[in-house]
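Audit log entry. Action: structure prediction of a protein-small molecule complex. Ligand: pyridoxal-5'-phosphate. The ligand was supplied as SMILES and no pocket hint was given, so placement is left entirely to the predictor. Protonation state taken as written. Sequence taken verbatim from the request; no trimming, no tag removal. Recorded inputs:
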Amino acid sequence: MVDEVPLSRPDVTGAEIEAVLDVLRSGRLSIGPVQEEFESLVARRVGVRHAVACSSGTAGLHMAMVGLGIGPGDEVITTPFSFIASSNSILFVGAKPVFVDIDPSSLNMNPDAVEAAITPRTKAIVAVETFGNPRHMERYRAIADKHEIRMIEDCCEALGASHKRTSAGAFGHVGVFGFYPNKQITTGEGGMLVTDDDRLAEFCRSLRNQGRGNASGTGSWFAFERLGYNYRMSELHAALGVAQMRRLDSILQQRAMVAERYIERFLDNSEIILPSIDSDSRMSWFVFVVRLAHEYTEEERDRIVEGMHRHDVGAAPYFPCIHLQPFYRERFGYAPGQFPIAESVSQRTIALPFYTGLSRRDGEFAAQTFELMLSRENLRRT
Ligand SMILES: *Cc1c(COP(=O)(O)O)cnc(C)c1O
């Protein structure tokens, strides 16, 4: 069943449809000029030298790991409060994710905890701009530089965010964007690795294309110099990306307006903890996630989410902690209580319907339904 006001909805206009049709008519469906155009639009926007389009954000993270030479025996510091790909990509190369707890206000890793977790085996930090918030990114980079390790910026949720004058994607030695349909811009499926490192960019172009040595057009098409993958992005996907990038400012602005309406709506409700953004940062709104006040339990949160679905309004518990997923518990023996802030936050978060062009009316309906479900939980208690 589809909710009347869904959690998320891609913003696809006639421009995107025309762009995809143009590719279909051109006869060139992969490895072509549209991917290059998409790459240069993203590189310019982020302010980095290179962008390497790929088939998903997860593929981009995997290439970043391989490209930085991370492997068995290495430790990589990351957050337990994220979408699972940020941590799974560490496992792809046989390295060990080392989780650190989060800062309860930004929901990004606590920078002091990051520094405290560094050991002689630490090879990199995977920093995630949770829900599009760039807080602490420059601190993580300073820590990485001080300890001579690498910073991989998982900016899959943060296209368009910035802190002071640095854009999301430019904090790390390498950054990775994702273009799944719920992201700020979408290619259906897709991702993009960004970096200032010439050698790393060239290496990842080769990884993306079966390990071919002629990523830049030299050498033979059938010279495979390393173990590579098929992580290419088709021209159809890239065409969607180009059309979406051209509208990026308008998309970001519309999303900020939708977020602002929710914030104003809930400002006086002491039972709802709103996202907090520091004054030097520009948030890029990926989702709109609120947290219930401390007295609420996980069961109450789950009932509120279910209640919203019964009223045809999308809602979701973003994110369940990675270390408590069955696979991670089994493999690494994690148990509840190890990352108390991430766990406490993740038990009380709710993502509300959020997408470019969410109308004032539908947003208001979602907000009202949410508040109605909250008041029902309060009635049960008394
Ligand atoms: C979306 C996302 C990814 C990548 O997802 P794909 O579906 O592989 O494009 C990676 N990390 C985070 C934090 C994400 O939100």
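Audit: result stored. Residues 248-381 form a domain with the Aspartate Aminotransferase, domain 1 fold (CATH 3.90.1150.10). The mean pLDDT is 96.
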